[in-house]
Specification:
By secondary structure, the protein is an alpha/beta fold. Helix content is about 35%, strand content about 20%. It has eight helices and eleven strands. The strands form three sheets. Strands 3-5-4-8-9-10-11 form a seven-stranded mixed beta sheet, with helices on both faces. Strands 1-2 form a two-stranded antiparallel sheet. Strands 6-7 form a two-stranded antiparallel ribbon. A hairpin with a 5-residue loop joins β6 and β7. The chain is globular. GO terms for molecular function: hydrolase activity.
Length: about 260
């Protein structure tokens, strides 16, 4: 699917980019369909990698949608192209944010969820850069708009971020302070963040600071879990935590 960012991208850019998203993989629920979650892979990966893992989870009421990010030049790799939800030069609160890429990926997630039945709860989650995109989607949902001001119209019920960080954290507070509705929506949106203490790709303190930044602007229904000794990967203890949390927050039956 193509997205031309002249319509959804950052208004600060005079040029526009077209993003061509890769293949989407779907894991169908084995039981009664109660929720649909878009799950976003990390930098350089593809949707099929996570679809294989998600299929093994004991969450029989969830439909998982695992898209593949566009292939694009990534500044972190010296401009070498790979699958990425947005461009990134450094993983820190001080680095520049690729609003155009973030908006395009958040819009892709919203589009994937927009055709779900009205009685189905929807959410977004991801790993590493996928987690960063999921958290950006959470802020768009809370603010009611993308970074470029276009309306965000998907009602997210749950957000999960593994080994990730929060993009646009420097401007979030000022944007939240302008809207009482945003603060109210933030307080009611469940978010689970998990991070390994030995993560050498996205440092644990980036994840911790992201959780603190979200909490400080009103995301009070947020849980941050640290896994001692875990690096930049997932472990069974973490996936069990995700399963338990999703079952509780989404009120799933028989999972």
């Amino acid at each position: 699917m193509n997205y031309n960012t002249s319509g959804i991208g950052s208004g600060s850019r005079t040029s526009s980019r077209t993003f061509e998203f890769g293949r989407t993989y779907v894991v169908r629920p084995k039981g009664k369909h109660q929720a649909t979650i878009v799950w976003l892979h990390g930098l350089g990966d593809k949707g099929s990698s996570w679809a294989q893992l998600l299929e093994t989870l004991p969450l029989t009421n969830i439909k998982w949608i695992c898209p593949t990010a566009p292939s694009r030049p990534v500044a972190l790799f010296g401009g070498f192209p790979c699958t990425a939800w947005f461009d990134v030069g450094e993983i820190s609160e001080e680095g520049p944010d690729d609003l155009e890429g973030l908006d395009a990926s958040a819009a892709h997630v919203a589009n994937l969820l927009s055709t779900e039945p009205a009685d189905i709860q929807v959410g977004v989650g991801g790993f590493s850069m996928g987690a960063a995109t999921a958290l950006y989607s959470a802020t768009c949902r809370t603010l009611g708009q993308y970074g470029n001001g276009n309306p965000y119209q998907v009602n997210l019920s749950a957000v999960v971020g593994l080994s990730g960080w929060l993009p646009c954290s420097r401007t979030l507070r000022s944007r939240m302070e302008r809207s009482y509705d945003a603060v109210r929506r933030a307080a009611s949106l469940p978010i689970l963040l998990c991070h390994g203490s030995a993560d050498d790709v996205v440092a644990h303190n980036h994840g911790e600071k992201s959780a603190q930044a979200l909490n400080s602007v009103g995301f009070r229904n947020l849980v941050f879990r640290t896994y001692n000794g875990m690096g930049h990967y997932t472990i069974p203890e973490e996936t069990r935590e995700v399963c338990t949390w999703l079952t509780t927050k989404l009120g799933l039956e028989g999972s």
